[in-house]
Inverse folding.
């Protein structure tokens, strides 16, 4: 057995947590379905019929998953995530979430330039001129492919408006 | 003979300079998508789909299917040279492909993989050519109860035949159905499950789900492993290629078995990934050199590759003829068909024979184009993986989000992709199957409509599903498949645990 140092998230805990989350999702779906009637009328099932039982099935199957977790994954020492892996995930997902937030604020082109530049310089330790070249080059390439070639406009923000690009 | 003349008409549609150029472009894009970790066939096709909305449907489907072939081939390249499966379905290729390449026989391994893949694909297309109009004619007799029965059978077979826990399969599938019901109800017109959030009124697109689940989810998994590329340099020399071709007839038993497994798994919705594992397992069991498997045995490359590709191509048969996709990628393509204004199913064979047979003919040509292009471009695509991941990773992220934005031009979808990415990551790690979720999202509305229409026809009596021999048989098989995990557990308990079969784990 390899020794895992630092924080460890066990598979058992994660199985239980996921089962609870999906059960909650099922409950929300069932609850949302009650708005439209979950029974039958002259024209067969009402609009809420299908979603109601889908939600119910999710809840039941989730309980099954939780029960299976106790029989199959308890005290087996299976690991879901080690501290080292969690660090890698955060290093990758953190900038990604920031990128999405930037997209909403500044549009896709500016956000992708900033995102690529930041990841290359901070995490990849590339020199600034190279990172600038790659990030701006990527944005320009996507602009040419999407807007000019396929004529699919992407989200633009205040910076493009300032430069007069629509 | 009718199929043959149809096929010839199809060739006249597919064999134009424009369409050959589209095939080339699609295959190259597909190889790129297949080579890059995190981008695979289902979400590659999802990303490209919004760009085809304005294209002619025949050209659009040729582009998307060619991309699919390319992605299947590209996945094998990285499996063999880098020991990193570019696609989930090429995991089994790493078992013997990478060891053989490390012995200095990279060209032999690659050529063997591509050729057996090509043979598998052609076998799949032959099956489609032979069976599709027959299946479509048969399906013309279907009305709503039969359709619901077939959908039911499809989903029941995921629960019964899948290697994952049946509970997890049900959770995943039902979540897909749940997502599909969000938004406008097609029969009553009421807005369902929107919880007064305006962004949910137009529903959740299955494309967004695929990009998140497969794209971002896969990237998170790749990142977690701490990516290191230990690539093997390869240059494909024509002499080596011909030497490998000469060894191919010796593998004919493995090839045939793998093709049959692939077709079966492709038509019943087992999918290419399950097919390649099953084929590898059987090849190992039946081979006299079973102990050599895992150390670079050529048959260990032939088996998964041929099965993978014959499953990939034959998954198009139920999609075209019945409107039921056999794999996640076929599900995405079927969604595309509906967006282009075509109705997949038997009527398609009558209304748009040019589309159906043009597509089938393009599969023959596309796979040949793919084998040639993939052999020619191995050094090029292998060099892409030598670009540091701190550049490639973010670029893949950007591509995923651009693709997500183009689906509906809404920023809400970008957050949804992140959420689906998290779900995909957790589900993959906990062995929840993801394909049923995608299939349920694409088929959800159709299955529900078929059910409700049957109920309207039968005035709310469930006995309509056993009202004639055809629908009754399909429903009964479906119920048996659904209960199979229980039955199997009962049998193995009765026989004292001897009946237990080793399950195939996909992680």
């Amino acid at each position: 057995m390899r020794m895992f140092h630092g924080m460890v998230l066990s598979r058992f805990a994660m199985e239980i947590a996921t089962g609870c989350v999906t059960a909650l999702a099922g409950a929300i779906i069932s609850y949302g379905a009650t708005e439209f009637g979950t029974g039958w009328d002259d024209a067969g099932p009402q609009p809420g019929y299908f979603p109601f039982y889908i939600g119910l099935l999710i809840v039941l199957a989730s309980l099954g998953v939780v029960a299976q977790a106790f029989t199959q994954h308890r005290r087996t020492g299976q690991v879901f995530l080690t501290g080292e892996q969690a660090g890698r995930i955060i290093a990758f997902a953190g900038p990604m979430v920031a990128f999405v937030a930037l997209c909403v604020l500044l549009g896709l082109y500016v956000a992708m330039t900033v995102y690529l530049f930041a990841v290359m310089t901070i995490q990849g330790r590339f020199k600034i001129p190279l990172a600038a070249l790659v990030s701006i080059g990527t944005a320009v390439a996507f602009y040419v492919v999407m807007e000019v070639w396929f004529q699919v406009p992407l989200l633009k923000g205040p910076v493009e408006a300032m430069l007069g690009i629509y | 003979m009718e199929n043959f003349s149809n096929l010839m008409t199809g060739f006249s549609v597919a064999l134009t300079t424009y369409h050959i150029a589209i095939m080339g472009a699609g295959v190259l894009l597909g190889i790129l998508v297949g080579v890059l970790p995190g981008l695979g066939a289902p979400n590659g096709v999802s990303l490209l789909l919004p760009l085809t909305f304005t294209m002619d449907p025949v050209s659009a489907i040729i582009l998307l299917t060619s991309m699919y072939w390319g992605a299947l081939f590209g996945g094998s390249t990285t499996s063999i040279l880098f020991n990193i499966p570019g696609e989930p379905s090429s995991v089994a290729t790493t078992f013997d492909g990478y060891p053989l390449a490390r012995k200095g026989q990279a060209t032999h391994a690659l050529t063997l993989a591509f050729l057996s893949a090509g043979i598998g694909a052609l076998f799949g297309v032959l099956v489609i050519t032979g069976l599709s109009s027959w299946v479509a004619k048969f399906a013309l007799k279907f009305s709503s109860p039969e359709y619901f029965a077939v959908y039911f059978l499809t989903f029941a077979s995921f629960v019964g035949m899948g290697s994952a826990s049946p509970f997890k399969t049900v959770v995943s599938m039902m979540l897909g159905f749940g997502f599909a019901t969000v938004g406008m109800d097609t029969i009553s017109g009421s807005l369902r499950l929107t919880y007064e959030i305006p962004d949910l009124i137009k529903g959740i697109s299955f494309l967004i789900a695929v990009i998140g689940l497969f794209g971002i989810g896969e990237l998170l998994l790749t990142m977690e492993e701490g990516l290191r590329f230990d690539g093997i340099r390869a240059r494909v020399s024509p002499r080596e290629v011909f030497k490998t071709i000469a060894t191919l007839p010796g593998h004919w038993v493995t090839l045939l078995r793998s093709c049959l497994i692939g077709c079966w798994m492709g038509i019943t919705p087992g999918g290419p990934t399950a097919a390649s594992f099953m084929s590898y397992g059987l090849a190992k069991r039946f081979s006299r050199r079973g102990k050599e498997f895992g150390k670079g045995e050529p048959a260990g490359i032939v088996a998964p590759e041929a099965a993978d590709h014959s499953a990939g191509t034959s998954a198009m048969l139920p999609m075209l003829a019945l409107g039921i996709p056999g794999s996640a990628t076929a599900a995405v393509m079927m969604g595309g068909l509906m967006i282009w204004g075509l109705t997949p199913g038997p009527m398609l064979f009558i209304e748009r024979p040019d589309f159906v047979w043009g597509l089938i003919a393009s599969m023959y040509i596309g796979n040949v184009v793919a084998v040639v292009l993939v052999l020619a471009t191995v050094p090029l695509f292998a060099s892409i993986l030598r670009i540091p991941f701190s550049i490639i990773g973010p670029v893949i992220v950007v591509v995923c989000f651009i693709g997500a934005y183009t689906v509906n031009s809404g920023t809400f979808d970008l957050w949804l992709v992140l959420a689906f990415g998290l779900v995909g990551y957790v589900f993959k790690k906990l062995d929840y199957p993801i394909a049923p979720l995608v299939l349920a999202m694409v088929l959800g509305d159709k299955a529900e409509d078929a059910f409700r229409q049957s109920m309207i026809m039968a005035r709310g009596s469930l006995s309509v599903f056993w009202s004639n021999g055809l629908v009754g048989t399909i429903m009964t098989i479906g119920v048996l498949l659904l209960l199979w995990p229980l039955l199997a557990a009962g049998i193995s308990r009765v026989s004292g645990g001897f009946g237990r079969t080793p399950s195939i784990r996909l992680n």
In short: Residues 26 and 66 of chain B are 5 Å apart (CA to CA). The two ends of chain B are 45 Å apart (CA to CA). The first helix of chain B runs from residue 2 to 14.
